[in-house]
Amino acid sequence: MKALGIAVLVALARALFRDPVALRSRLGCGGRVNPPLTLVLEMVAVSLRQGASIPFALEGVGRTLGGAYAETMIRVARLLVEGNDWYFSWAQAMRHPRIGEAMTVLSGCLESSWLHGTSPLNRMDTTIEQVERKARSRLDQETARLSIRILMPTGLCILPAFVLIGVIPCIAAFAGGMF
């Protein structure tokens, strides 16, 4: 019987993991999961701290991240190297359906550096802190909502049990002593 159970588990594992792309789509990942914005900003900041130019940093981080980030960041880097205007280079990246918001934030961090020659690192550090603060705030709000959603069913389950086990026997004992 034990061997049959192991054989069923092995067959199930083979069916599930035979096609990892199908498994990701069944799990709701849809293929590749985008990394958090803070990670992207940190990676670009590290590249810039090491002396890379903005296009080189964008291309290197894009190649490292892969997926939508690779094609978008490499395209922006190439447009900048070719001498195109900053806004023209970033326009299509900021309209990307999945990572457009991240590209808008990244462009905002690097814009003054490209146009005026200032260091982008302070602005990037500030942006990373703001994004983390927003994420923490959103997490706290969702946690509060979840605790309320959990409290209602728990209360509705425990209250009848308390009445049936604690209150009714006490009333019955009190009423039994009166008669």
Please state roughly what percent of the residues sit in beta strands, choosing from under 5%, 5-15%, 15-25%, 25-35%, 35-45% or over 45%: under 5%
- Helix-strand topology string: HHHHHHHH
Outline type = rod-shaped
- Quickly give the structural class: mainly alpha
Note poorly predicted spans: 26-31
What is the total tally of β strands? 0
Give helix % range.
over 70%
- Nearest-angstrom radius of gyration? 28 Å
Estimate the mean pLDDT confidence.
84
Tally of DSSP helical segments: 8
Classify the oligomer. single chain
Q: Tell me the major beta sheet.
A: none
How far from one another are the termini?
61 Å
InterPro entries: T2SS_GspF_dom (IPR018076)
Pfam family, one: T2SSF
Subcellular location: Cell membrane
Transmembrane segments: 150-175
Describe the structure.
The protein has 179 residues and is mainly α. The protein has a domain at 34-118. It is built from 8 helices and no strands. It has helices spanning 2-17, 20-27, 37-49, 54-65, 67-81, 86-94, 100-116, 121-178. The longest helix has 58 residues, at 121-178. The chain is rod-shaped. The N and C termini lie far apart (61 Å).
Keywords:
179 residues, 83% helix, mainly alpha
Fold topology:
Blueprint: H1 2-17, H2 20-27, H3 37-49, H4 54-65, H5 67-81, H6 86-94, H7 100-116, H8 121-178
Helix pairs in contact: 3-4, 3-8, 4-5, 5-6, 6-7, 7-8
